[in-house]
């Protein structure tokens, strides 16, 4: 039993959070033998990043002027890593996410499932590993790491995509896929369901977005990367207008920050610029509960009794009255405000310091990798 004591719980007010067996057992007034003081801190659900290629962590910032096509043709083919390099890259990416308060990530696999899953487990993050359809049947779900089928999506090969979805369904797993071409979603109309998770969707028509929303499909928008690399205009507002609940993803840190604050803020800025009515605080749902649901993990992303105890304590915002908190966090918070992070009830960052990992050492371990890939 752990009690997070006296924090300002978003949506509740000042309260204690009781954690038992990795789950939230109560929100109210508690005392216990093990207490974590949250006085002056805001208590939030951990962030859920529904689309990231963790393997690219060593190349952080290297793609500031790269288009998607240049990345796919010139950089990605050179990202050939040894097992040790791959393990170190994924571990760095996952720890970087934890440091930013991201407690769940959907990691788009790089094709070496065993090594990548090992690295995810070592990190302590909760993850959905996007596995190749060809080896996903070997996945043995363990601890905090589960699997989804990562399909190349309908644009590359419609037949392969349909086969991937049926493989996933036969194993009871979700399918996650990039969707780039207009008409791709319409072609999949008969197959749509809540177990399908799409990413980007910039070229989707409004009708297609309505199809996704009414079928309960997840849709992840990655506003900074889409803006930087030429994917097209992010569909966040259009998906909301279509009745959908968008999720948010970092995608790649080659030209985006590793936290969800930037994703929320970029979506908000873009929609405000084009006059789409959006309350700032609503973005917080996309980065937590709506993201969790989009990737089939409804047991995280909110602070309620029975939910897994994935929790972030933020400093610097407890002066705000309850109704201004969500918008305040969306508009002004950053990684340096991430004070403490718990995953499944375990403290992974405390007082601003990672408990089990050291980011500078993890970065040093992959220092030569970006140079090698980008040379
Ligand atoms: Zn992607």
UniProtKB/TrEMBL annotation:
The keyword Hydrolase applies. Residues 42-348 form the Amidohydrolase-related domain. Keywords: Hydrolase. InterPro entries: Amidohydro-rel, Metal-dep_hydrolase_composite, Metal_Hydrolase, MTA/SAH_deaminase. Pfam families: Amidohydro_1 (PF01979). Gene3D superfamilies: Metal-dependent hydrolases (3.20.20.140), Urease, subunit C, domain 1 (2.30.40.10). This is Amidohydrolase family protein. The lineage of its organism: Bacteria, Bacillati, Actinomycetota, Actinomycetes, Pseudonocardiales.
